[in-house]
Each structure stands twice: as structure tokens, then as C-alpha cells.
Amino acid sequence: MIAQLSTARINHELVVTWEPLPKDFQLEDDPVDNDGQPLLAGALRESLELSGFIQPQMLILSNFGLCATIDEKIVVKAPDWLYVTAANPSEYTRRSYTPYAEGDLPTLVMEFISDVDGSEYSVKRTFPPGKWFFYEQILRVPIYAIFEPEGGLLEFYQLQNGRYELVLPDADGRQWIAEMNLFLGTWRGSKEGRSGYWLRWWDESGTMLPWAVEQIEQERQRADRERQRADQLVAYLRSQGIDPDNLPSSTD
Hints:
CATH topology: tt1808, chain A
Strand content: 25-35%
CATH class: Alpha Beta
Strand order of the largest sheet: 3-6-7-8-9-10
Number of strands: 13
Structural class: alpha+beta
Order of helices and strands: EEHEEEEEHEEEEEEH
Shape: elongated
């Protein structure tokens, strides 16, 4: 039996229900707009994974369908990146995600601007609704972030009194996400052959969560510092007439 966990009326017109996607529903298989989008999305997940942030109950996905049924019509939008704190366990490979029916509402959805049609800002309410309208008025996702990779502009919107309101960054240019206990901000550099602006995470102390290549470099630098300290100690011992290779043992 199809679960119907919640019903709501939007402006006394649209009826929204939360029903898992039928198994025979054909999802669109549209490619991403450009090859930079998967890199941006993957980099966001990579640093979270390396930091030990990701837990089994979480959903952290990119270009993945979020579903709702509006006036008995299934609507699917695939944000470029989404974060769900807790989803119900599934014995099958997920094809999509319907909030309430399958777990928590997403805390955060992101769109990466790559064209000029303005779909990220669309408030079209007729079928199929625009992205902004869907996230704000249908799903009511608490945080909607829109990132423009070419210029590095990050727009951060929070749901306040039923509407998205632009939130300005802090003095460091970052946005605090209390639900994740992390900051989100922009950073300029290179990774996987792409140079430009990226979205990065910082912990509450202001330390940026590293990517794998950065973590490897940090470990190499730490090993170099330890080797230098050891070399300095050997040099000091020899300057004092002590052979570092023939030090007395602690049992002597």
C-alpha cells in the first residue's frame, strides 16, 4: 500500500502528498550541464567523508531526484547536491527520495549555475513547477544555496516565515549551518584539472576540511618536520661528542 504520510494545501490550491515513487516510474536521464558539476559535488562529499562526518543514515547525493506529488501529478527535481540528516533504511538501491515517506526532509539543497535560463530562480507554480517554488513552497527545504562557479558567488537562502530570505556571510565570507555544525564557503584553487572557485567546508574552529590530496600533503609535511627534528637532534648530539648510534640503553 502506498504510504501517504502528510497532506498539505499550498495557497488553498495545490494539494501535496508524499508517496514513494512507483517502481515503474521512468525517471529522466538528463546529463549534467557541464563536466565541472560532478567535480564540485564530489569535492563537497569527499572532505565530509575524510573528516568522518558521514554516517550510515545520512543521504548525501548529487543530481538525484527529490519527489513530491502535486495535485496527483508526480514532480521530480534533481538538485546538484543535497543533504538529508536521516533517511529510512532501504533494501533496494535508491532511485529517488520522497521526504516524509522515506525519511527526513533535506536540510540543504544546492544548485550550481551553468546556464542562463534562470531555472534555479524559477517560481513557476504550474506543472511542472520551477525549482525555487518546489524547494521553497512544496518541500520547504530549510536552506537553499545557489553557487555560480565562474565568479565564485554563493547565495545562501534560509526559509523564514515560509519564504527564502538571503543570508549574508560572516566576516570570513562563510555561512554557518547549525544542522551540520559546519561552515560553508567559497575557495579558489585547483583540483582534478579544474582551476577556479570551489565550495568548501570549515569546522566550528575555522579549520578547512581537507581533500584527499591535501591530507596526503599535510602528512608528507608532518613527516618532513619530524625528520628535520630528528636530524637536528643527531647533529646536536654529535656536537656534544655523543655518538647517536651508540647511546646507552635505559637498562644500563
